[in-house]
Amino acid sequence: MTGSNMATALVNAACERCRTSFGPTERIVNSSGELFHEGCFVCAQCFQQFPDGVFYEFEGRKYCVYDFQMLFAPTCGQCGEFIVGRVIKAMNNSWHPECFRCDVCDECLADVGFVKNAGRFGCLQLFLSPKFLPFTSCSFLLHLHPTMRTCSDGYIACDLLVVCFLCRHLCRPCHNREKAKGLGKYVCQKCHAIIDGQPLVYRSDPYHPDHFNCTHCGKELTADARELKGELYCLPCHDKMGVPICGACRRPIEGRVVNAMGKQWHVEHFVCAKCEKPFLGHRHYERKGLAYCENHYNQLFGDVCYLCNKVIEGDVVSALNKAWCVGCFSCSTCNSKLTLKNKFVEFDMKPVCKRCYEHFPIELKKRLKKLSEDPTRK
Description:
By secondary structure, the protein is an alpha+beta fold. The protein has eight helices and 26 strands. It is flat. It holds the Pfam family LIM.
């Protein structure tokens, strides 16, 4: 095309964005045959020019890198970053090819295929290796992961939900564990069946009681069995052994014993009825069969000082049918400190020291003396 023909074509051309013509000296942007004013060649979202001229096109519209990622780019399920370029779609998620790896051996799975299992995925080479274990429900071979173990009847027991790749069923122990969670029950740690009744807790794990026999008499145990020094005993045999029983948890006491309130306690179980902190040898106070620390006993049941109106902590001064803190018991006239050894006179149901009393009018002192001798006031 000659220069004159090109000039003629530009005169007849229009900007793809604003649909207006171009000036004879104006700079023009050509993108895949589309012509734009330089100021019109901008991101369809933020209307800013493209940094370094880099843009992405989606459904006929052009976007800068940032807005394209925010609007359309998928997020990697592993690293959480935006994916630009090749995307691996698997397990209802998107992945960078380099982030899509076997959960066991960490090999990249982007080009080798994978096996999905209970929300996890692994490489075919690993799950089809010679290290297999028969899956009893369908005889399909399932890889024995190092975290799994086998119980006595050949089923897989593990901390994960082991699902057969072929039949999609859980192994029996895992199935029972999930069912027990829904029912609010325990799974026996020996036979892996659900415990319908009360479990026998042995070494912090639940069991069917009939899996055990009494160490002393050999009888089949119930949930009331007691553990002593690592051995299980039926309740009658245990009681005959003279082992002290804790008044709180009703379990045998093998170590230190606290004797208090006519009962025996584990050291850590003899606690304040209010704050539940162990006394650990400190003084306790009893009230209606319950033990309290000094602080909470005073708060709940202690005397209130007549003067400061606070619970009295420590010694109490009882006088004139009232209770006083030691520091608050003083002459109501001159505020000098008093003790029960000091002589004082009652005036208006308050103590008055002898020195202040001597300054009272004679008639008032006669009246007070007469009132003190009145037997109806005693």
